[in-house]
Protein 1
Amino acid sequence: MEDFNKLAETEATSIEKLTICEEHDPESNTINQPLLKSPPVLPVNPVAIVGAKVTHIESLDYEINENDLFKQDWRSRSEVEVLQYILSKWLLAFLVGLFTGITATLINFAVENIAGYKLLAVVKYIEQKRYLMGFIYMTGANFLLTMVAAVLCVCFAPTAAGPGIPEIKAYLNGVDTPNMFGATELIVKIIGSIGAVSAGLDLGKEGPLVHIGSCIASLLGQGGTDNYRFKWRWLRYFNNDRDRRDLITCGSSSGVCAAFRAPVGGVLFALEEVATWWRSALLWRTFFSTAVVVVVLRAFMDYCISGKCGLFGKGGLIMFDVSGVSVRYQVVDIIPVAVIGVIGGILGSLYNYLLHKVLQVYNVINNKGKLQKLLLSLSVSIFTSACLYGLPFLAKCRPCDPSTLNSSFPTAGRGGKFQQFNCPKGYYNDLATLLLTTNDDAVRNLFSINTSTEFTTFTLIIFFVLYYILGLITFGIAVPSGLFLPVILMGSAYGRLLGIIMGPYTRIDQGLYAVLGAASLMAGSMRMTVSLCVIFLELTNNLLLLPITMLVLLIAKTVGDCFNPSIYDIILELKGLPFLDANPEPWMRNIKVSELVEVKPAIVTLAGIERVGRIVELLKNTTHGGFPVVDEENGATELHGLVLRAHLILVLRKKWFLQEKRRSEEWEVREKFNAIDLAERGGKIEEEILTNDEMEMYVDLHPLTNTTPYTVVESMSVAKAMVLFRQVGLRHMLVLPKHQAARVSPVVGVLTRQDLRAHNILSAFPHLKNSHGNKKRH
Amino acid sequence: MEDFNKLAETEATSIEKLTICEEHDPESNTINQPLLKSPPVLPVNPVAIVGAKVTHIESLDYEINENDLFKQDWRSRSEVEVLQYILSKWLLAFLVGLFTGITATLINFAVENIAGYKLLAVVKYIEQKRYLMGFIYMTGANFLLTMVAAVLCVCFAPTAAGPGIPEIKAYLNGVDTPNMFGATELIVKIIGSIGAVSAGLDLGKEGPLVHIGSCIASLLGQGGTDNYRFKWRWLRYFNNDRDRRDLITCGSSSGVCAAFRAPVGGVLFALEEVATWWRSALLWRTFFSTAVVVVVLRAFMDYCISGKCGLFGKGGLIMFDVSGVSVRYQVVDIIPVAVIGVIGGILGSLYNYLLHKVLQVYNVINNKGKLQKLLLSLSVSIFTSACLYGLPFLAKCRPCDPSTLNSSFPTAGRGGKFQQFNCPKGYYNDLATLLLTTNDDAVRNLFSINTSTEFTTFTLIIFFVLYYILGLITFGIAVPSGLFLPVILMGSAYGRLLGIIMGPYTRIDQGLYAVLGAASLMAGSMRMTVSLCVIFLELTNNLLLLPITMLVLLIAKTVGDCFNPSIYDIILELKGLPFLDANPEPWMRNIKVSELVEVKPAIVTLAGIERVGRIVELLKNTTHGGFPVVDEENGATELHGLVLRAHLILVLRKKWFLQEKRRSEEWEVREKFNAIDLAERGGKIEEEILTNDEMEMYVDLHPLTNTTPYTVVESMSVAKAMVLFRQVGLRHMLVLPKHQAARVSPVVGVLTRQDLRAHNILSAFPHLKNSHGNKKRH
C-alpha cells in the first residue's frame, strides 16, 4: 500500500484533477487519450459524450441534509403546506402527462404529414417514370430535413443528439449531466426529432420522446427555464434532488407511454431500465401520468380520425395491432420459439459489439469539430436515401394477390401500403413496399398477418442487411435518434426470414414470427424483459402472444448477457457517466474502504470556525463537492459534519463573515439564509471577488454543516459500503477511523461515486481482477 | 426527557420484556390487554395473529455480516462455486415455478370436481322437488368440507389460516413470523384450501396460492423440511436471509400467476404489494418463474381439454375472458367511469373498516380455545349454505331468452351456467344462477357480456348484500382464505347494479361495468394500482379496457386512501407484525435518535474477551438479538462491533472457551466454526448446560463479531436514520455518541425495527403527533 501512497504523492498535480473531483471538464479527456493505462490513483472515466458538448458532471445528493437551516425549514411547515406539497406533486404528475401527450401528438402529426407528402410526391415522379427527378427530390428533401435536425443539435444543444435515455438513467442514478433538461434541449429535441424521422433516417422517435418527457418534467418542476421562471410558491418544495428525481421518472415513463401508447409498459420501462431508486408511491404517480398521456392521445385520435389532420389518421400510434389474430400454438412450438430467442440474442449482442466500435470511430470524428459532425450526419442521410431509393430496382415485380386485389393494391390495405414502384399495373415491388415508406409503415408491413407470400426471401435478406448497417451508422450522428425502431426493423425482418425457413415445421404465422423476431433482437440488445414484454403486449394488442413473447425475451436476454452488457450500459460507459451498479462485485468483499482512502490524496478538512482565506484557497485548489468540518477543542478533535461546496460559495457570495473567531447566533444565520438559497447550486468560486480584509475574517460553518452525514468505519469492505452508498443515494460517504485514539483526525477520508465504481477500483488494484469471481452475482 | 428516564427505571422489569426484545411470546399479550395505554417506553405491539398460534417473531438480517469467519468463507469461494451459486439460483426459480404450477393445477382440479359433483347432486334433488334433501345434502357436504379445512388449520398449522399475504409481506420487510413456511403449513394450506373453496365459502384460493408458492420456495431453498433435509452442497449458498428473501419473492409472484394465470400481473403484484426491497435482477428471475408457471398451466389445460379430468375442463383458470368484445367508449365516458371509481373506493374502505371490527371480535373468540375456533368456522359454513340455498326461493322465475335458448339454457352457455332451480322448463332462476354455483362461475356469470336483462336489480341487490356480509364474516375464520375473490364477487355485483342504473346514459356493456366494479372495489380495499391493472388485463384478455380500468383504479385508490389504510396494512397492524413503512413520517424529522435511545433501558455491552458466566447471564436476562462488543485498552474504550445472540449461543453450545483472558488465533476459530454453522439460527439459551468451571472461563468474541455494523450518530433525526435502516435492511443499528470524549461508552444505544416504528414512537412521545403534518408524504 505504501507504494501506492508514494506514487500518489509524486503525481500530486494530476491527482488533484483526477480523484474525487466530480466537476471537471470532460472535453480535455477525449476518448483517445491514454487515460486508462492503470493509473495509480482512482481515475475519473474519460467523458466523451457522443456528439455532445458538456461542461461538467456533478453528482446528485439524495441524502437528507440535516443542517440547522434545513431543519428549521421543515419544522416550520404547517399542515397546509404539507398538503400543498402533496397536491402539487399530483398536479405536476398530471401536467407532465398532459404536455408529454400533446407534444407526442404534435410530433406524430408533423412526421406523418411531412414524410407522407414527401413520399406521395416521390411516388408521383416514379409513376411518371421520372426516376432521376424522384431520386433528386427524395434525396434533397431528406438532406434538408436532416440538415435542420443536425444544425440545431450541433449548434444549440449537443446533448439533444442521441436518444437521451442513458443520460436519464444516469441522472436517476445520481449523475447530473449538465444541459440535459433545459428548454433549449427540449425544443431542439422536438424539432430535431421531427426532422430526423421525416428524413427517413433509420431511427425512431421513441428514445427522444422519453427525453422530451423528462425535459418537460424537469422544466415543470423548477417552474420554467433558467431565465424565465414562473415563481410559484408551491414549487419551492421541489427544490431538492429527491423530488426532482421522482418527477423525471414520471416524465420518462410518460415518454415511453406516448411513444408506444403503452401506459403499463411505460411505467415498467421506467422501473426496469431507467430508475435506480423506486418506491411504491412513485409507481402509483407514474401510472397516473401515463394514464393522462393515454387519454390525451385518445382525444387527439378521436379528433383526427375523420381526416382533419392531413395524413395523420391513426398514424404513428397503434403501431402493430394484431389483436384480431387468434394465435394457435402448443407446447411443441417452444422449439422454434427458442431458436428465435437464441439467434436474436446473438444478433443483438453482435449489434451491441459493432455499435460500440462504430461509436468509438464516430467519437473521433465528432470531436474534430462542428463541421465534421454536420458532414457525418449529412453523408449518412445521403447514403440512406440512395439505398432506400436504389435498392428496390433490384427486386422483381410480383403480381398482386387477386383475391385481395381490392383491398391491398396499391396504397392501402391489410397491415400497410403496397407500392407499385416501377412495376406495371396489377403488380407490386415488395422491396419498395418496405423501403419507400415511413419506418412505422415498414414495421406494420412486416408484422402483417396472412401475408406469407407477399415478401420474398431475397427482399427480406436485403432489407435485414440494409437496416443492420443503417442501424449501426445512423445511431451516432448528431441528431435526436431512438434505438427502439431500428432494432424493431431489423428484428422483424429477421423474424420473418426465420419464419419462411421454419415454415414447414410450425403453425405460427410469419407476421407473428416478425413480432417475435423484433422482441428477441430488442431483448438481445437492450436486455429488458418485463417492460419489453408489456410494451409488446400493448403494441400488438394480443394477449395470447404473451407466453411465447416471454420465453423469447428471456432466452434472448440470457444469450445476450453471455457476450456483452446492454446497449445502454455500453453507451453509459462510452460517455463516461459514472453509473453505479445495483450490486457490488464479489471481489469488492476483499478490499476495505481504508485501502481506497489510502490511494487517494490526503483528506482536507475545515475547522468549525474557519478563516475566509482558507476557504477560498480550498475551493480554488480542489474540486471536491463537500468538505468534512472538524472541531478542535482542548486538543481533541471531533467530527462536526460535512459542508457542501455550494453552501461555501453561497457564504462567500453573501459575505456572511464574522470579525472574530466566535460561534454565531441562530438569528444571525436565519437573517441571511433561507432554505431556498441553500437548495441553489452551481455557483462558481471564480465569480466571487473578496478583498484582503475579508480574507482575514471568519466564517462560522456550524449552522451550514450537515451534522449527520452517513459514515462507515474504515475496516468495512467496499462491498458493504457500496450497499449503503447506493441504497441511500449518497454523494459523499465519510470514512471514520477504527481506532479513534490513535488517529489525529476524526475522519480519515471521503468516498464518492467515482471511488466506488468497479472499473476505477480495478484500475488502482489490478490484482483484485485476477483473484477470482469477477462475474456479477445475480 | 428525565421524566421518561425515571419512569423507565421504575418499570424496569416490564421494560426488559417490552423494548428492543424481538423474540417474545405473543400469546401473553392478547389484543384485549391494555398495552397501548401510552407506556413510557417504546412498546412492542401486541401480537394477536388472527386464528393462529405463533411462538415468537424475529427480525431478519439483510446486513452483510463482516466477521472473520464469513469473510474467510467468501474469499475461499472459487470461480466454479460462484457459477454454481448463479446456476442454482436459476434452477430454484425454475423449480419454484414448476411446483407452484403443478400444485395450482391440482387444487383447481380438486375444487372443480368436488364442488362440481356436489352441485350436480344438489341440482338433481331440486329437479326432483326434494328441496329438504337438497338442503341437507348441500349443508352437510359443505359442513364436512369446512370441518376438514378447519380441523387441519386449528390442530396442525394455525398459521395456514387466512391468506398468508400479510405475513409474506412482513417477511420480505424483514419480520420472520415463525412456522410460516414449513412443510406442515404447505400441506395444510393445500388441503385446507381445497376444502374451504369446495365448501362454497365466500373465499378464494388466490391468497392461499401466494402462500403456497412462498412455502414451496422456502422449502426448496433450504432443501426440504426441517426434519428431512436434502443435503445438496450448492444449497449452502442460500443459507442467508438475502437469498431466501429473493426466493420467497419468486414464490409469491408464482402464486399470483398461478391464481390468475397472469404472469406479468404476478411479477407486478410481488413488486407493488409484497416486496420491500427490489432489484432489476430479481425482476428478471421472478419473471422467469411466472413464465414457467404459465407453461405448466398451459400443458395441463392441453391435457384436460378433452375431458380427461372430470369436470375440470378449463375451469378455474382463464376466469373471465372477454377478449371477443369490442369496447367502444369516448372521452365522455370518463364520467360514469369516475362514478364507479368513487363509489368503489368508498365501499372498499368501508369494507376495510368493517372487516377490521369483525376481526377484532373474532380475535377474542379465537383466543378462547381451539373448540371455539372450530365452532366459529362451522357456524359460518352453515350460515353460508343456508343463504346460498334459501335465498333463490325469493327470486321469481324468468323465461329463458328464446333467441339464445339453445346456447344459454340451462347449464351451459355464454359466460356461464344458467340454473333452472325451482322453475318450470324454459325458465331460469337468476339468483340461483349466481348462488348455486362455484364462486368462479358466479363471477363469470356476472362478467358475461350482452346479458343486460338476465339479472334483475332485485337479484343483484340481494347478491351484493349477501356477499358483502359473507365477505366480512368469512375472512377471519380458521381456514385458508383469500381476499381477492370475495372482493371481486361484491365488486362485480355492485358494478352491474350501477350499470343498470346508468344504462340509459352510457354505451358501455353491463358485463364491463361488472369488471370495472370489481376493479374499483379491489382498488378501494387493497389499494394496488399497476399490478391490479395488469392482472385485470390478463384476466379479461381485453386491452381496450386498459385506459378505463386505469382510471377506475386510480380514483378508487385515491378515495379509499382518504379513509383508511389498505386491508393488508390493517391485518398487519392487527397481527402486530412490526412492518416498517417505506417513507418516514414528516414528524420524524423533529426527533433525534438520541431521544429514542434515552427512553430505552441502558445499553448492555460485552467486552472483547468476556467471561462465560456474564454471557450466559446476559442471554438469560435479556432478549436482545445482538450485543455491542466494546474493547477496553488503557482506559480508553473502543467499539469493536456487534455480536449476534445466535452466535453467542453457538459458542456456548460448542463450548469454545479459553482458560485465560487472551486473544485467540485464527486457526483455533476456524477449527471449531464454519460459515454454515454461523448461518444457523434459533438456538435457545435454556438448552445450554454449563458447569461452574466453564462459567469462569473466557470467550474471545473478536472473530465472531461483525466488525463493521452500520452506525448513526446520536444527533441524527429519526427520519434520516430510518432511511438507512429501511433501505439497507438492518436488524440492529448502533448509535454512536456525538462527542466521543465526553462519553464513557463508545456506543450509546442500539436501535431496532420496533424502535423506529411510527406507532411506537408516538406512544412514547405523544406530543409529536399533535405537532403537525401527521400525514404521509407520497
Protein 2
Amino acid sequence: MALIVQKYGGTSMGSIERIEHVAAKVAATREQGHRVVVVVSAMSGETDRLLKLAKSVHPRGNPREMDQIAATGEQVSIGLLALALEKRGVQARSYTGAQVAIRTDNAYSKARIKDIKAERLLADCQAGIVPVVAGFQGVDDSGNVTTLGRGGSDTTGVALAAALKADECQIYTDVDGVYTTDPRVEPQARRLDRITFEEMLEMASLGSKVLQIRSVEFAGKYKVPLRVLSTFVDGPGTLITLEESTAGESMEDARISGIAFNRDEAQLTVLGVPDRPGIAAAILGPIGEANIEVDMIVQNVAPDATTDFTFTVHRNDFDRAHDITKTVAAELHAKDVRSASDIAKVSLVGVGMRSHAGIASRMFKALAGDGINIQMISTSEIKISVVIQDKYLELAVRTLHKAFNLESAAC
Amino acid sequence: MALIVQKYGGTSMGSIERIEHVAAKVAATREQGHRVVVVVSAMSGETDRLLKLAKSVHPRGNPREMDQIAATGEQVSIGLLALALEKRGVQARSYTGAQVAIRTDNAYSKARIKDIKAERLLADCQAGIVPVVAGFQGVDDSGNVTTLGRGGSDTTGVALAAALKADECQIYTDVDGVYTTDPRVEPQARRLDRITFEEMLEMASLGSKVLQIRSVEFAGKYKVPLRVLSTFVDGPGTLITLEESTAGESMEDARISGIAFNRDEAQLTVLGVPDRPGIAAAILGPIGEANIEVDMIVQNVAPDATTDFTFTVHRNDFDRAHDITKTVAAELHAKDVRSASDIAKVSLVGVGMRSHAGIASRMFKALAGDGINIQMISTSEIKISVVIQDKYLELAVRTLHKAFNLESAAC
C-alpha cells in the first residue's frame, strides 16, 4: 500500500464529465489498495477568465487582489471533485491552500512555498478520506491568499508529495509521457519509460512543456519520484527519477534521451572587441543589470588582438538587449554589432554525454549532411546545443532523431 | 466623522460598470469625511451559477463542499471592488469571511455568526484603508468555509456594524427604501423616512422583500441603526431605528407605517371539534412535529359543545398539513376538515395599534365597503392581519392605503 499524490491539470478538470472521469481514476487507485491525496488545477480557461475580469477593472491592479480573485478557480474545482468522489461512494474533503496550510512568502502571483502542514491530510488518509487540495495557491504569514504563478499546481503536487513523504507524485496531463522529441515534428518520436531529473530539466527548459521546471527542480531536491501520465489514455507514463536507466544497454554507452528545441531566442554578436580580460563582464554586466537573462555565450579564441563575442537572449528581451549592446559596443570601440532573431536552438539531451566525444561529432556530421550550418555550439554534462537558422529546425530534429536511432528503445 | 458599514447586494455588483459605480459611492462617502467598511455579495447570478455547477456533479452533495464552492462568488467580488477602489486612488483591501475572521457554527449553508474579530478591519480604517469584506460567508472553528444562507450578506453587514460599533449600517439595494406598501399594487405608495425594527420585521415577514428578516432581528438586538438605500438613485432611503418617529404627529395618534401582504399561505379548518381543553394542542402538535410552521390560529367561542378551529400554513406545506389534519380530525371525531389555498393575508402595520380600537374598525369598515369578506383576523401589538379571498388582494391593499391616507406623509 503506497501513498500517492495525484495531480490533475486544468484540461483534465475541463468539464463535469472530465471531473467525473478524474474521480473514477482516483477511485480506481484506491481500489488498488493505495492511499491517495489529490491536487487539482482550476477548470481549463477559468484562471484566464478570472484574471481577465480583474484586469477589466484595473489593468495593473494590486497583485494581492489579483491572487485573491484567481485562487477561486481552484477552490471551485476542489469542491467539485470532492462532490464527484462522494457520488462514487469515496469519502473526500476539499482543502484550499490556506486550509491545508500551504505556507508561502508574500510574493503575490509568484509566491514560493515555505512549508506545508501535513497533519490534517495524513489524518484524513488514515480515516479513509481522500483530501482534495487546491493547486497553485497558498497563504502567507498574515493569512493573505497567494498564488504560485502559472503551472504552480505541479509545484503544489510535488511539494505535497515531499511533505507527506509520498511514494510517488503522479502528474496527470494531456500527454501520456515524456517523448524523445515533439511528436508533431517527428512522428517517430518515442515515449520514454524513464528519464533523470537532470535530463527532464534540460528537456523542460528547452521547450518541452510537459512539466513546470520548478516542480522538477523541487522533485529532484526532495527526491520525490515523479511520473507523468495521461488522464485520458491509460499507460505507465514516464517516470522521472534520480537513477539512470540501465536496462538493455551497456554501461559504457552514453544514453541519448531526447531532442529538445525552441525558437524563443535571438542572437547578438559584438564583432571585433579587443581581446582582453573583463570583456565578457563589460558586455554582459549591463544586460544582467537590465534583468535580461542570457542563455548561450560563445567567445572564440582570438586570431588577432580582437575577438567576436556572441550570446543569446529571449526574443521578448531582444530589442532592449540590442540597444544596450550597441551602447556597450561603442564604449568598447568594437567594430560592429550583428543580430539575428531567425534562429533556433536544438539540443541532444542525455546522461554521460560529455565523456563521449563521438556523440558531438556524430551530431555535427548528421547536420552537415543535410546542409545545415551550425552558428553556435554549447555543451554541458548532459546536453549538446547548437544554434541554427530557424527554417532548418524541423529538418534538424528529424535528422538527429534518426541519426541516434531514437525511434527504437535501445539506442 | 462617522464609521459606516455599507453593504452592496448582487444587483449592485452585477457588472464591471456597476462595481465601478459602487467604488464611486464608497469614495464619495470617504470624501464626506467618514470611515467606511464595505460588505458585498457575489455578482448577481454567480451564486446560482456555482450551485448549479455543484449540483450537476452531485444533486445532494456534502453541504461542506457546496459552501466551499459557493463562497468563491463573494471572494471574486471583494477582489474586484478592491481593484476598482484602487483605480480611483482609494486604498482598499479585500477580506474573505475566514480572513476577517467571521466565526460561525458549522451548520453549512445556514451557519450562524458566533463572533467577529474586528481588530484588523479597525486597523485598516485607522490607516486610511477601506476593508472590503465578503458577505454571506464565515469560517468554523476547524477552518471550514461556511455560508449563512440566502440573503446572508445583509446579516454580515449588520453583524460587522455591531462588532465595529459602527454609527450606521447602510444596505444598498435596487429599491430606494421601505414603502407604505408594494408600489406595483398601489402606485401611490410612499417611501417611509423611518420605521422601527418591530414594524420592519412585520413588513419583512409579510412579504416586503427589502431586507432579510434575520438581519433586521440582528440589528434590533444589537441596536445598529440600519438604513435601506438605492445603489442607483440618490436619496436618504429609510432609516430603521429603535425610536419611533414623532415628527408631525400627535403623541396620542397611532401611526400606520404600511400595508404588508402575501399569498404564501393556505388555510385549514377543522369543523365541529369537541370544545374541551387540549384541542388546540391535539391538532397543532402533530403539525409541529412534522416541522410545519403555523402562522395564524383562530378558534371561536363555541356556541354549543363543539367548535371550529382554523389555522394557516405555508402553501409549500399545505398537502402534508392537510393529510395530518385529516388524520387528527378523525381521531378527534370532528365533523369535517375544510381547506382553502385561494387566500391572501393583508396586514396593517404600525406602532401603538392595539390601544386604538378605532383602527381595527376603520379597517374592517373599509374592506366591507368594497364587499370584501374577512375570513380570519389576528392582531398583535403592531399589526392587524386579515385573511381574505386572494382575488380581492390588490383591491384590499389599495382600499386600505386610501382609507388610512398613507399616500400623504402625515397620517
